[in-house]
Every structure is written in C-alpha cells, then in structure tokens.
Design brief:
Elements lengths: L17 H8 L7 H13 L3 H21 L5 E5 L9 H8 L4 E6 L2 H11 L5 E5 L5 H6 L1 H6 L7 E5 L11 H11 L5 E7 L5 H14 L7 H5 L6 E2 L5 E2 L21 E7 L2
Parallel strand pairs: 1-2, 1-4, 2-3, 4-5
Antiparallel strand pairs: 5-8, 6-8, 7-8
The protein binds S-adenosylmethionine.
C-alpha cells in the first residue's frame, strides 16, 4: 500500500469488512465467511434489513439522476463508494450524459481492486484510495485533483458512510472540510442511519459495533448538523423512500426498516 492508496494493501479475508458485509446484505457474491457471519448477526436483529439496503441503492440512483439530470452536475465524487454492484453511479450518470466524470473513493483495498478491474479503459471514471477521516488527503490526492475540474460544481456523494464515522471522529467537521473545498453550486448527498427511537436501533447498532467496531444511528437533528453551510434542496432531510420517490418506490409506511435511514441533498451557495 502506498500512502492513501489502499489498492495495493494486503487483503485479510479472516476479518469482516464493511463493504463485503454490505455486499452480502445486498445479495452479492464478493464476500467471505467472516463477512457473512456479521451479515447474519445483523439479519438476526433486523430480518427486513435487505429492504433497507435496497432502498439505499435506490435513493442513490435517484440522487444521481437528480444531480446530473436536473442540476446540470457533470462530475461526481463518491466517497465510500462500496463494491461495484448493479447500476453503479457512473453507469446511471452516463445514461444521462456520457461525459459525466466520476471519482470513486474508498478505504477498502478489495473495493479498489474490483472497481479498477471494472473500470479499466474507462477514462471518464477513476478510482482512488482515501479515508473520509482524512479529508485533506482525499482533496490533495493527485488522481482526485486531476480528474475533476475544481472551478465547476461537484456532486459529493456520502451514501451510507457517515454512520460509520464515530462521534469522536467528528463527522460534522469532516463534511465541513470537504464542503469548504467544493466550488459554489456543488451539491452534497448524505444517506445516514436514523435513530428514530425504534427498539431495533439499539440491537442493530450493537451488532455493528461488536463486529465492525463502528456504526452509529443518529437523530434527525444530528444528521441535519452534517449539512452545515449547505441549503437543503426539496424535500429536505427525509426518510429514504420520501426523497423524490419514483412511482414504484416502496412507501416508508410499508416496512419499519424503511424508517431507519434518512437522506438529503444540500447545495453550496
Ligand atoms: C455501506 S457501504 C456503502 C456503499 C455505497 N456508497 C452505497 O451506498 O451503496 C460503505 C462503504 O464505505 C467505505 N468506508 C467506510 N469507512 C470509510 C472511510 N473512513 N473512508 C473511506 N471509505 C470508507 C466502506 O469500505 C464501504 O465500501
């Protein structure tokens, strides 16, 4: 591994990794026994979890369509991109404008390896190792700097990652540091696990913390605090299914798991 670029790190299959646990919950094949064990513990405390992760992927697709199709954004910085799956960010964006440039950032070497294999020969999309807990190093990464035009608005995607940042790692300061570097007119998307007071929250949080060492459900007020310096666009910070739903988006009332995460997009004035 060289510096922030985790793509050449030794890969440990005996320890669970968040990206692979998420892949397992999504029904993917890029996971190992240790990841499936954690996934099964989470499923035991929240059997309907799969509906939640599918809703997460669906809102990500809706947000990308909104940013590229309605806000005119043509460059996306996806931090905590995850393992490639069906309908990745660059594929959704490209259907609207093939010239859209995308940078995927993740701190998991397996994610970087898979993403690089998928994207070999794709000049409009690049993959960079980086850690959200060190925004300055992401912003200074030559691959990130060179791939995006920092005089034009950027769509920053923080989907399903900030709840893996502990309170003591100061998530609001991390987002503020990234926002400060973005040109005016940039948009920031946050998907975050929501502490709604549901008894399932404590159990799932405990399962995540015990196995992955992290995982924090936050209240709506706490998540709003991550949008400091941004103007929330309609419909604001809402339950995931309520963020600009498609006709076939399952309603939040149809499944309690769909009330355990919120989503919002903020615009930098
Ligand atoms: C739950 S997955 C979400 C994937 C995708 N964004 C989505 O919503 O479908 C979270 C991803 O964030 C990555 N991640 C977690 N903490 C990170 C950090 N501090 N810096 C960079 N990536 C991180 C994990 O490796 C994983 O791939």
């Amino acid at each position: 591994m060289s510096g922030e670029d985790g793509g050449r790190a030794a890969i440990d299959f005996s320890e669970p990794h968040l990206a692979r646990v998420y892949d397992y919950l999504l029904g993917g094949k890029d996971n190992f026994a240790a990841d499936r064990e954690v996934g099964d513990r989470i499923i035991a405390s929240l059997p309907a979890i799969r509906a939640g992760v599918l809703a997460q992927r669906a809102v990500l697709r809706r947000v990308v369509r909104f940013l590229v199709g309605e806000c005119g954004i043509r460059q996306l910085l996806d931090i905590g991109a995850g393992l490639p799956t069906a309908e990745n960010v660059h594929q959704i964006a490209r259907r609207i404008d093939p010239a859209t440039r995308v940078v995927y950032v993740d701190n998991d070497p397996i994610v970087l390896t898979h993403a690089r294999a998928l994207l070999a020969g794709d000049d409009a999309t690049t993959v960079a190792g980086g850690d959200l807990r060190r925004p300055a190093s992401i912003l200074a990464n030559p691959a990130v700097r060179a791939h995006l035009d920092w005089s034009r608005p950027v769509g920053l995607l923080l989907c399903g990652i900030l709840h893996h940042i502990l309170d003591e790692e100061r998530p609001a300061e991390l987002t503020a540091e990234l926002v400060a570097a973005l040109p005016p007119g940039s948009h920031v998307f946050i998907h975050h696990l929501l502490d709604s007071g549901d008894p399932a929250v404590a159990q799932v949080q405990e399962a995540m913390r015990a196995s992955l060492g992290r995982g924090t459900f936050r209240t709506r007020e706490q998540v709003l605090g991550l949008f400091t310096g941004l103007e929330l666009v309609d419909p604001g910070l809402v339950l995931v299914p309520d963020w600009r739903p498609d006709r076939d988006t399952p309603r939040a009332s149809s499944n309690p798991v769909l009330r355990l995460a919120c989503a919002g997009v903020g615009r930098k004035p």
